[in-house]
Amino acid sequence: MRNMNCQSIRRETEEAGSAGFLSAAALSHLEACAACQTLFRQQTNLQAILSGLGTVEAPGDFDFRLRARLAGEKRMGGLSLPFGNFSFGLRSTAVAAILLLIGSAVLFVALKSSPNTSVAGGNQVPSQSVTPESNGGNLNPVNGVVKSGSDDVAKGPIEQDHLPEGRAPKVPGMRREIAGVRSGNRFGARDMSQKGAQVDRVAGTYPTAAFPIDASYQSLKVSVDDARGASRTISLPSVSFGSQKTLSQTASPFLATARDTW
Amino acid sequence: MDTLTTIDINFSAALRHEVVADPTSDHALLEATRTGDEDAFAELVGRYRNPITNYIYRMTSDYDGAVDLAQETFVRVYRAADRYQTTYAFSTYIYRIATNLAISELRKRKRRKLVSLTGFFQARDGGEPQEFNPPDLKPLPDTELVDAERRNAVQRAIITLPEKYRAPLILRDVEGKSYEDISRILGTSEGTIKSRISRARGFLREKMTAYL
Question: What is the ipTM score, two decimals?
Fold first, then answer.
């Protein structure tokens, strides 16, 4: 009974607080019960200490800093990200997606701009090269060496496909020569079907516009450099190009006919 | 749940109060803020900056951090001025924001493991680590020094309380709020608030025996 009374009195003193009023029964109990009296005294002292802690004041520049912060927020309001109200997960996903996109774009640009790994589709013709167009439609650097003269060509094994005159080089199904290029750990491929290889010609051997008739009987040598110091020379068998025969302006009885035919 | 959960800002309809038509009331000032009156907001800030800073400081025991959080509290009030419903007590509203910010800050600290070297003693109820604060039993010559030491001791003791006990104790015994207001601010029933305050006082009595 006494414990029950102590519990109820303690609950009452707890709720009443230091400034609260206690009932007459509680006051009489406190006078009689030393334990409850001690507890009540400690509690009153504790609450006095707590209430006497005082108020920590805000610094003098609180308003100024707050105004500056609000002004900054207003300025940044128009620049806030469109997903600023997203949850943390969605924001993380959006940021990751943007980073991935940027990374892909940077990688693409780096691959595109790298001279070792240029993408197929270039239409540049090396200077001082013999192209099918400049050579009457046929590339036949007889007794010359077709070698990797330009930087682009020097990066891989090259074969030049000779297309029949009048055929567009991008016709579907056309055989394309792809050169594999290795640069570091990256692999790339180039379409060389529209490029003429640079030809190193022995100076003064042949006239620019005409070949001697026996030129086609000489072998064609192609030197290939794989950009790692290894080179290889391929001798191609002689090919006769009957249509390439240079006709004499004087002696041929078939001149007129041939001209008509050509 | 051992820790105090972050409180939802939405008020229930049961907590509605009548809007006071007084132009100097908090509601009127916030209404004016909503229409772009910066002076009205400055008046609100002037009214609440010290109580809010003090409350957050008692919760976190970090003055600079408390000032920052108090500023963040007012920024949130300003931002949400359009959404604020004047049918509710503004002081309850702003204390609730401050409580949420303080609790978030305490959780961040807990994640960062910012525990003092003496804070390896676990709470008796198996909750958060309690800081060991041995009382200095040597008599001090000056009463003012004694009071200062006592205040420091109680502040150190408060900061060792679990969050769910700390907030109601500060609101009741330091800020002087009523049980009803505290239950609104913390979103808990009055019975629970009374129980938590009683337990918090019990913890403090044990820690502050030498000063009581």
Answer: 0.71
